[in-house]
C-alpha cells in the first residue's frame, strides 16, 4: 500500500482491563465507531504510528508524481496530456491534504519533507519502478491506483478524524484515476501489434510490484493487530491483496492480456483466485533503497526542494515586509 | 478542524498554515474544506483557489491563519454539547412523519 | 481576408498556448512548494485547453483533414508560429514565473480585444480564455512582486530573469501582412495596439517588484513568422511528438 511496514510500539494489543481509565475511554470510543480529533487525548503510540503512516502515505503521493510526470511531456495527444497532468496534479493535492492531516498531530510539513529527503521516512515501494513506455501510464492507473483504492476506501472510516476526512476527499477525486489508466490499456489493446506488445510488457513489469504494494502477509503481526485495534488499519494485507487479484484478473482477460503468473487459477472453495506470491526478497531490496529508481526519485525530490529554497524564502521575506509596512501605516 | 493539538514548533523559513473556508454557489455558509501553506493571506487565498476550488467561478474564500483559531478544549466538551443533546426535538428524526405524507 | 491568413493567425494563438503549456507542464512534481506545483499545473491545463480550441479551429479553417492533434504533433519547427519567448527553457522558477508574467500581461490584453472579434468563434474562445488569463496574470504578477521584493537572492534572480527575457518581449508587438489583414477585417487586433496596456501593467508590477527594466529595447524575432526559431523548440518537439512520430497512425 502507500503505507507499508508501519511498525507500531510492538507491545501487542492491551485488553480493556489492562488499560487505565483514560486509555480505556479512548479505546471504547474507537470500538463504538467514534472519531478521535486533534485535541483529544490519545496514547503516544497512536500518535506516533499515525504520523508515520499518514506521512508515508503523503510522501508516496508526492514521489508518486514522478513516474507519471515522466510521461507528461511525451503524452501522445493533447487530451491525454491534459488528463495525465490533471491526474498527477491530483496526487500533489492528495499529498497536500495528507500532510495537513499529519500536521494536526504536532509535526510540520517541512519536518516531514526533511525526513523524507534524509531517508528517515519512507514511501511506497511501487514508485521505485521505472515507467518505460506509454503503456506504463495505463498500467500505473489501472494496477497501482487500483491497488491503492483497495486500501483508501476503507480508510475513509479510520478512527482519526482529519485522516478520515482527507481520505473522503481523496477517494472522491480519485474515482477517475483508475478508469483513465484502464482506458489507456483498452486503446492499446485494440491498437497495433506494437501497442499490444507494449501493453503486455507493462502488465508483466507492474503485476508483481503491484501485489507487493500490500506488503507481506501480516496475519501474525502484532503491529498490524494494534493498528487494527486502533482502526488506523482496516484490513489485513492478505485480504486486500486477494480482493485486488480477484478484481484485476477478469479485467486483464477482458483486455486480452496475460497475467504473468502461470499458477493463477480460480478456487471455487474460497471464492477467489489462487495466485503466486511476489518475490519478497526483491520487495525488501527496494525498501532498503536498492530498487531500480530509489536513488533517482529521491534525488529529484531533494533537488526540487533545494532549488525551491530561495523561492520559499523570498516569498516569506516579502510577506514580512508587507506586514511591517502595514503596521507602520496604522 | 485541523487545528494542531499543540502548536507545532514554528520553524524559520516555513510558510504558515492556513485553514480554508469556502462558500459554494448555493448560498450556504462558509464551510471548512481543509488547510494549506502560504507565505501570507493574499497568497493563501490564491492557493486556496488553485487547491480547493480548481478555480470555480462565484465562490467566496476565507482563509485564517491556523494559529489564530480558538478551539474548544476537550474537557469542556460535555458542558458545551450535552445540553443540546437533550433537546432531541432539534433533530428531524425525532418526529415521525406518516408514510402517506412522503419525503420531508 | 483569405483563409490562409486566418489559419496563420490561429496558429499563432494556438502555438503560443501549446508551447508555453508544455513548458509549464515540465514543472510537474518539481515546484518549490506543493501549492505552487498545483497552481502551475492549473495554468498548464488552462493553456492546453485553449490550445485544443485554437488549433481545433485552425484545422477546420485549413480544411486539409488535419486535427488539432495533427497540428500539434506532426508539424516540424519551421511550421510553428509561437513567439520565441514561450519556447525558452524554464531554467529556474524565477525565469519561469517572469516569462509567465510577461506573457500573461500580453495574453490578457490580446484576449480582451479578441473577445470582441468579428469572427464569432474567435470571440467565443477568447471570452472563455480571458477569464483564465485574468487569474494567471493576477497570480504571476503577485509572485513576481513577492520574489523581486523578497530577499537579496530572490531579487537578484528575478532581475537576472528579466534581463534575459526582456529582448524576447518585443516580438509580441510585431506586425506583418497577416496582422494587417486581421485588423482590417476586425478579426484580431494589430499587436502593436496592445503595447500601451502591456507597458502600463508591466511597468507598474516591475516597479512594485523593485526591478529595473532594461534600457535596451532590442527584440529577437522570427518565432511568430516561423522564419527562425531558437534551438530549444526542436528539442521540445523531439519529446512532445515522439510517440506520434514513432508509431504513425496509432490511436492512443
Strand runs of chain A, count: 2
* Rounded mean pLDDT score of chain A: 94
> What would the CATH topology of chain C be?
Ferritin
Shape descriptor of chain C reads globular
- CATH class of chain A, named Mainly Alpha
Show unreliable segments of chain C. Answer: none
CATH architecture of chain A: Up-down Bundle
First-to-last CA distance of chain A: 53 Å
* Strand composition percent of chain C: under 5%
GO molecular function (chain C): phenylacetyl-CoA 1,2-epoxidase activity
Enzyme class (chain C): oxidoreductase
EC number (chain C): 1.14.13.149
Keywords (chain C): Oxidoreductase
Describe it.
- The complex is a heterotrimer of chains A (330), B (104) and C (252).
- Chain A has 330 residues and is an all-alpha fold.
- Chain A has helices spanning 21-31, 44-63, 65-69, 78-103, 109-117, 135-155, 161-189, 193-212, 222-229, 237-255, 280-290, 294-307, 309-329; strands spanning 265-267, 272-274.
- A two-stranded antiparallel sheet of chain A has the order 1-2.
- The model of chain A has no long low-confidence stretch (mean pLDDT 94).
- Chain B has one domain (17-98): Phenylacetic acid degradation B (Ubiquitin-like (UB roll), Roll).
- In chain B, β1 (17-23) and β2 (31-37) form a beta hairpin.
- The relative contact order of chain B is 0.17.
- With 104 residues, chain B is α+β, with helices and mostly antiparallel strands.
- Chain B has a 3-stranded antiparallel β-sheet, covered by helices on one side.
- With 252 residues, chain C is an all-alpha fold.
- Chain C has a single domain (3-218, 229-246), classed as Up-down Bundle (Ferritin), CATH 1.20.1260.10.
- Helices cover 66% and strands 0% of the residues of chain C.
- Chain C starts with a helix and ends in a 6-residue tail after the last helix.
- The mean pLDDT of chain C is 97.
- Chain C: This is Ring-1,2-phenylacetyl-CoA epoxidase subunit PaaC.
- Chain C: GO terms for molecular function: phenylacetyl-CoA 1,2-epoxidase activity.
Amino acid at each position: 500500500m502507500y503505507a507499508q511496514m508501519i511498525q507500531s510500539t510492538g507491545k501487542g494489543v492491551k485488553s480493556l482491563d489492562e488499560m487505565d481509565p483514560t486509555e480505556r475511554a479512548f479505546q471504547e470510543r474507537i470500538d463504538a465507531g467514534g472519531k478521535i480529533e486533534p485535541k483529544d487525548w490519545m496514547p503516544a503510540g497512536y500518535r506516533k504510528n499515525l504520523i508515520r503512516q499518514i506521512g508515508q502515505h503523503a510522501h508516496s503521493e508526492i514521489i508518486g508524481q514522478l513516474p507519471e510526470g515522466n510521461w507528461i511531456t511525451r503524452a501522445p495527444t493533447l487530451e491525454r496530456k491534459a488528463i495525465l497532468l490533471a491526474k498527477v496534479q491530483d496526487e500533489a493535492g492528495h499529498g497536500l491534504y495528507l500532510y495537513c492531516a499529519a500536521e494536526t498531530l504536532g509535526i510540520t510539513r517541512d519536518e516531514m519533507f526533511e525526513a523524507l529527503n534524509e531517508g528517515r521516512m519512507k514511501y511506497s515501494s511501487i514508485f521505485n519502478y521505472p515507467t518505460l513506455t506509454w503503456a506504463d501510464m495505463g498500467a500505473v492507473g489501472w494496477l497501482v491506483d487500483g491497488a491503492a483504492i483497495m486500501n483508501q476506501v476503507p480508510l475513509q472510516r479510520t478512527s482519526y478524524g482529519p485522516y478520515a476526512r482527507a481520505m473522503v476527499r481523496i477517494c472522491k477525486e480519485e474515482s477517475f484515476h483508475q478508469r483513465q489508466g484502464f482506458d489507456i490499456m483498452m486503446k492499446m489493446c485494440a491498437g497495433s501489434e506494437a501497442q499490444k506488445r507494449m501493453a503486455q510488457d507493462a502488465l508483466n513489469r507492474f503485476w508483481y510490484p503491484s501485489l507487493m504494494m500490500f506488503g507481506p502477509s501480516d496475519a501474525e503481526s502484532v503491529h498490524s493487530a494494534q493498528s487494527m485495534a486502533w482502526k488506523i488499519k482496516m484490513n489485513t494485507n492478505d485480504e486486500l491483496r486477494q480482493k485486488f487479484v480477484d478484481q484485476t484478473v477478469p479485467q486483464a482477460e477482458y483486455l486480452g492480456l496475460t497475467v504473468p503468473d502461470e499458477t493463477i487459477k480460480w478456487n471455487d472453495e474460497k471464492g477467489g483466485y489462487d495466485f503466486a506470491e511476489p518475490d519478497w526478497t526483491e520487495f525488501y531490496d527496494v525498501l532498503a533503497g536498492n530498487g531500480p529508481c530509489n536513488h533517482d526519485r529521491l534525488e529529484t525530490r531533494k533537488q526540487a526542494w533545494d532549488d525551491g529554497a530561495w523561492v520559499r524564502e523570498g516569498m516569506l521575506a516579502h510577506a514580512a515586509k508587507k506586514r511591517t509596512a502595514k503596521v507602520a501605516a496604522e | 478542524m485541523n487545528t494542531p493539538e499543540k502548536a507545532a514548533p514554528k520553524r524559520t523559513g516555513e510558510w504558515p498554515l492556513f485553514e480554508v473556508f469556502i462558500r459554494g454557489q448555493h448560498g450556504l455558509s462558509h464551510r471548512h474544506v481543509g488547510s494549506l501553506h502560504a507565505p501570507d493571506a493574499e497568497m493563501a487565498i490564491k492557493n486556496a483557489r488553485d487547491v480547493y476550488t480548481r478555480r470555480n467561478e462565484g465562490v467566496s474564500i476565507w482563509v485564517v491563519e491556523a494559529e489564530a483559531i480558538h478551539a474548544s478544549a476537550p474537557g469542556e466538551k460535555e458542558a458545551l454539547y450535552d445540553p443540546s443533546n437533550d433537546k432531541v426535538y432539534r433533530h428531524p428524526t425525532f418526529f415521525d412523519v406518516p408514510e402517506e405524507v412522503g419525503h420531508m | 481576408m483569405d483563409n490562409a491568413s486566418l489559419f496563420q493567425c490561429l496558429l499563432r494563438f494556438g502555438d503560443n498556448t501549446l508551447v508555453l503549456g508544455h513548458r509549464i507542464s515540465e514543472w510537474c512534481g518539481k515546484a518549490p512548494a506543493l501549492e505552487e506545483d498545483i497552481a502551475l499545473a492549473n495554468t498548464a491545463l488552462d493553456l492546453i485547453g485553449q490550445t485544443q480550441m485554437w488549433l481545433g479551429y485552425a484545422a477546420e479553417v485549413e480544411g486539409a483533414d488535419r486535427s488539432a492533434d495533427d497540428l500539434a504533433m506532426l508539424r516540424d519547427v519551421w511550421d510553428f508560429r509561437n513567439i520565441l519567448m514561450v519556447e525558452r527553457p524554464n531554467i529556474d522558477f524565477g525565469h519561469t514565473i517572469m516569462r509567465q508574467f510577461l506573457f500573461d500581461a500580453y495574453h490578457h490584453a490580446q484576449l480582451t480585444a479578441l473577445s470582441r472579434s468579428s469572427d464569432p468563434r474567435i470571440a467565443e474562445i477568447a471570452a472563455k480564455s480571458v477569464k483564465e488569463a485574468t487569474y494567471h496574470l493576477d497570480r504571476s504578477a503577485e509572485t513576481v512582486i513577492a520574489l523581486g521584493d523578497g530577499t537579496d537572492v530572490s531579487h537578484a534572480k528575478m532581475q537576472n530573469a528579466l534581463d534575459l527575457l526582456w529582448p524576447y518581449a518585443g516580438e509580441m508587438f510585431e506586425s506583418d501582412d497577416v496582422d494587417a489583414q486581421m485588423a482590417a477585417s476586425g478579426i484580431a487586433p494589430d499587436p502593436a495596439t496592445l503595447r500601451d496596456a502591456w507597458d502600463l501593467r508591466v511597468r507598474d508590477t516591475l516597479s512594485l517588484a523593485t526591478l529595473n527594466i532594461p534600457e535596451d529595447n532590442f527584440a529577437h524575432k522570427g518565432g511568430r513568422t516561423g522564419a527562425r526559431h531558437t534551438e530549444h523548440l526542436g528539442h521540445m518537439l523531439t519529446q512532445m511528438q515522439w510517440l506520434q512520430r514513432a508509431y504513425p497512425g496509432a490511436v492512443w
